[in-house]
Amino acid sequence: MLDILANRTYRHLFLAQVVALVGTGLATVALGLLAYELAGADAGAVLGTALAIKMIAYVGVAPIAAAFAERLPRRAMLVSLDVIRAMTALALPFVTQVWEVYALIFLLQSASAAFTPTFQATIPDILTDEKAYTRALSLSRLAYDLESVVSPMLAALLLTVVSFNSLFAGTVVGFVASAALVVSVVLPTPRVTERRSIYERTTRGMRIYLATPRLRGLLAINLTVAAASAMVIVNTVVLVQAEFSLSQRATAFALTAFGGGSMIAALILPRLLDKIPDRTAMLAGAAMLVGGLFLGSFIDSFGTLLPLWFALGLGYSLAQTPSGRLLRRSSQPQDRPALFAAQFALSHACWLITYPVAGWIGAKVGLPFTFVMLGLIGIAALIAAAWLWPAHDPDVIEHVHDELDDGDPHLADVEQGSGRRHAHSYVIDSHHPEWPS
Description:
- Helix 3 packs antiparallel against helix 4 and helix 4 packs antiparallel against helix 13.
- The chain has a two-stranded antiparallel sheet with strand order 1-2.
- It is globular.
- The chain has 437 residues and is mainly alpha-helical.
- Helices cover 73% and strands 2% of the residues.
């Protein structure tokens, strides 16, 4: 997997992604502690609202940014977005009102929502070999999992010598370093295959996504993942500091337990996926998350929280990591950036549902009931995923093209007398606008 780092351009972009992720992770820990300082036991409600605002930015901005990423100079766009994120993070330690947190979070996450699909759209143009690109997807997923482990650990260490406000400085350093790494390489110009309107480019990935059965199942799994991870991200600080009366460092260690479980699952997944289908692994991970949520209503100490958070981390990675493989299987190379942007937007739409549930119900009704509510959302989504994603899900599907002319190049392999029927790896594209029944 690491041999693709021999490509200097990809190596610098990957390092830019890693340092930005570490900075974002520090901001996540610091934001929870800032919410607790401003709102005390109501921190879950504040954090839930802030993260809901983040999801609104992601859902609204990502598809539009993916459309414009096909046309704009990518290096200038990525660097500009890193500068915006750094300046916003620099302002966060100085806020004194909850509404100021909300405004800055919207600005920060809008820039992140534009950065991610632009970054993803660049990688296929750098790594044109399909196998290399697939390894890049796996490495990117590993970077996200490493971030969930390294950032809370780094935060825990820093909190022994500095206040939590200083963690935002680490976020600024991460974004500045990311911009410097992007500046250090020349990025390829976007590959334009068809001239499409802004509307078509904005919605293309979404239309491919929702027309593909396995991806509709993935969307349901995303909702289960969002239910569990929202509980962890929003209410860890409330559980640890308000319920158990422990320190900020204990909050960081609890988040590290979740990240550690996710990391271990990510490391064993490559061998596991050689033996079992993606569908089996992802549904098993989603089932772990649902079970963990229901068990969470019985948590009574920090000692029981840590193994539960570790188990939820295992289920999170098991359910989430193979999604890149599904997206690759389900798209033509030129449609892949749009499809990744659709996954980015739709998965965060799921968090838009679960973050307010985790924050507001937790603050108003109590955390045990919140665990149960999110567990019910998770199990409903799990049942939907098993129904929407057929167990028999071949790549090669036989189908008929009644709508094409006889001389169409796509029918070159069709034998005479076959009634325009042929078989190949089937994905939604210009020749295949609907899934065959």
